[in-house]
Amino acid sequence: MKNKNNLLVNISYSEAIRKALLYLFKKDKNFVILGQGVTSPWYVGNTLKDFDKIYPNRIFDTPVSESLVTGAGVGASLVGLRPFIIHPRMDFMLYAADTIINQAAKWSYITGGASCVPVTIRAIINRGGSQGAQHSQSLHSLFAHIPGLRIVMPSNSKDAHDLLIASVKSNDPVIFIDDRWLYENKQKFKPDYKINLAKVNPKIIKKGKHITIVASSYSAHLSLEAGIKLSKINISAEIIDLRVINPLKVDLIIKSVKKTKRLLVVDGSWENCGLSSQIISSVCQKINLNILKCNPTRITLPNSPAPSSHILENFYYPNVDLIVKKAKKYFNK
Amino acid sequence: MRLINKKLKFLTNPARYSDFLNLGKFKKDKLIYFLSMMIKIRLVEEHLAMNKKNNIIKSPVHLCNGQEAIATAIGSLIKKGDTVFGNHRSHHHIISLNTNLKYFFSEILAKKNGLNKGNGASMHLIDKSNSFYGSVPIVAGTIPLATGAAFSLKYQKKKNISIIYMGDGASEEGVFHESLNFASYYKLPLLFVVENNFYSSNLHISQRQPSQSISRFALANKIKFKMLDGNNVLEIYNHAQSLINAMRKNYEPALIEVFTYRQLGHVDWREDLDVGVDRSKEKLILWKKKDPIIRLLRSLIKNKFINMNFYNDIKNKINTIINRDWKYAIKSPDLKERDLTRFVYHEE
Description:
Chain A is an alpha/beta fold. Chain A is 37% helix and 19% strand. Chain B has twelve helices and nine strands.
């Protein structure tokens, strides 16, 4: 739905992705989609609904060949196309690690800028429901380690829409990570079609003065909910949504922590060498530690693969209550 | 498969095919072009070998001495708009496309004026203006890229083809098989050129595969293929020409497997006779009798197209160019510390 001010109303995260893709199909004849099950909601929810009917010659269902298909996307991007490669589950994308890490990420550098890789690789986080260790991973920290990649993790409909368009328009290889647990969240927003991904910064999604909570994607959504709960007990949390985690920009976080003097990081991946480690170390290196009222802490996944037991799943994934509880400790509440 | 095994018996035997080439209907100009290009590649490689030995070149160099016929034949069939991808051993591929030796040498020395602005050296090369879209040293790393390029060419309805040069070792990587399947299913204009020189670094193919022919994988994927004497530039040219013409017309993949021999070791200037199984002085001598340049040269002299003086003239002319362009490269500016993080991202 669109109203007079070009506001998109009541748009779910997954609809926002579809709208962005539809826009790209219309705007760029060299935009194509490749991936497994791209014509089936079983793989991709409703994010690609009816594209096989509207653009039958521009959407390609591929064999189960993650490595080749991702590499073909990179290769096609060297010769005029803007391919959008879909991995319905991020776990399977590891087959394409060579293409992503050795080829796409390095191509601009090793060719001295003579060539670039305008490919977007969409990795879907699809977990819960007792899917277990190989169907549930959030591997963003792993890819964020690599110079040359841009890693985008939207937490809401507007970012899912706008940053997807910016990702495809970028001349660098982008991994766009969306989370199926966000698909039903709705929002009204004014779309922006002209964002330069290289200029995208983290964003304060809730202003506050007592504690800075930093997160991205689903964790940012949880943190926002927690922030609302915290305000009811007079803890004013400032929530920062990272949006792009590589290259990581930390100026806004540092500014916020200088104000609140407390830092909590929430991340849906593991602790060791993970995104949360990077945020905390970046902040600690760049501020006077004496101003902090408590040590920075973090909420991450436990140091284990995802369990298959639905009982253990309740302990495994961070949730709003956990964030509230951890934040309260900063204030001895 | 029986046919593959039968051909294999001849093509892998260095004692066969060391006779004169059948010059057929080739015009003199074309023959001299082939000879000159192969000599150019050989002399460049000898020059690089010497400079690697003298430690002027710092990066590893994977030289192609003995394998010149393949790139010379295929390279002469490339048209504007085609996309060529190479691998760790790609000097002959890029030289056959008439890359400017000044920038090529500068790149080998990792200098600022190089093809890749000094960020690639020998193992990563690019020269898009001459259809060379990139080479990298991850074995099989460029196969999916070349497949994607073919996909793009077909999608854009261009009458161009994509070419992937690969070795026998790369056929052991899974992505090669994914690519054969995909190219066959989607009917992509992708030419696999398999330079079967029997070695994956220093491991002989008999230590790695139950058959010495890579063509069997084309057969399994319903892809047209040819098994050829890799040291016979004319035979490669004839077969590649008819395959490529059909590919441009019909949008279809093909595979050419050429049997050849690496006269030097896996990397740098040595012959490396002591590091591999089934690599002996005797065998090397036999394969050197099949040297692609000597065979064409002898055939041309026998047919009175040229004489030895003419041959020496070609060599002298090319050597003059090599020396001139090498000097340019040596004088080309070095990279500076501030260049370390340039080009990590295309958009700053």
